[in-house]
Hints:
Blueprint: H1 4-7, H2 33-38, E1 47-58, H3 66-75, E2 88-103, E3 111-122, E4 129-137, E5 141-146, E6 150-155, H4 162-166, E7 175-185, E8 191-197, H5 199-210, H6 222-283, H7 289-319
Parallel strand pairs: 6-8
Antiparallel strand pairs: 1-3, 2-3, 4-5, 4-7, 5-6, 7-8
Helix pairs in contact: 6-7
Amino acid sequence: MASLQEKCPDNAGPAAPTPTPVPVPAPCVIPAFAEACALLDAPYSCLVLDGHRRHVALPPVYLRKKKRGIREELSAELLKYSDSMKGVPLAFDDIKVVGPHADILDDQGYVHMNIEATFVVFKPKRGQKLKGVVNKLGQTHVGCLVHGCFNASVLKPGSLSVEAWRDSGLKVGDDLEFEVANLDADAAGVLLIRGRLTKSRIEELLSAAEAPEPVEPQIETVEGVKKHKKKKDKRPEKHERQDEEEEELADSGLEVSQMDESVVQEKKKRKKEKRRKVEGSDSSGYLSEKSSRKRKEVERDDVTDNAETLNVKKKKKKKC
């Protein structure tokens, strides 16, 4: 016998992912008589409560079970178009046998009798409105189930584009109101309903198709927010750097001006000494060549000093 480890290995692969549920259309269910009567007052039901008399031929099997046989015969004709009722019977009740006796015709084994019953009949007409549940979506039509029993096909309007029809917002399971455009029945008596959207619904879809698409707000990540903040913070840093550079230049300008003043004062002292010497030589009575040269040099120095003092004053005014 195999061990438990062989049957349940530890290195088993991961479990297969569960498939997403797909919407399944609701199956066709014949309602009971009480449920059908409750739908009579619903909007756009097109249901009518009608008492009807008809002929029934029962097989010999139901000779002693007449009510059961009658019910099975009538149930087999539900959801099929009836010419005598001019509609489709949906449910029945209150069965009554007309006459005290049944008839057997010639050598036939069937038992013939007349009955009366109350029927809920589905009688839609062209131009009337119906309300169904969407059970199928297509490129050119939408399938609906009316009262959970009758299939209807709602065609795409010609004025709508394929994109507008696709983006109409219809989903499986949604309620849809439409107008009856055509009615037909096949050989088996199954009713075929063709519908069209109401004018108000078509106008809504056209306006939605013409309206501009809303712009989705851009959601910034944490990194994007940080980058945005950094870009904003760069500007004040540049201004701060410029202010610091201007302050440094101003400080350097003050230092230069202070040095210029000290140099000018030293030159003035030297000039005073030279003038004293020149004046002393002039007072002795004669001017030598050396003294004349010294006086010219002193005059030149005075001119340059005056120019330098003017430049220093101009710099101070500009900084102020």
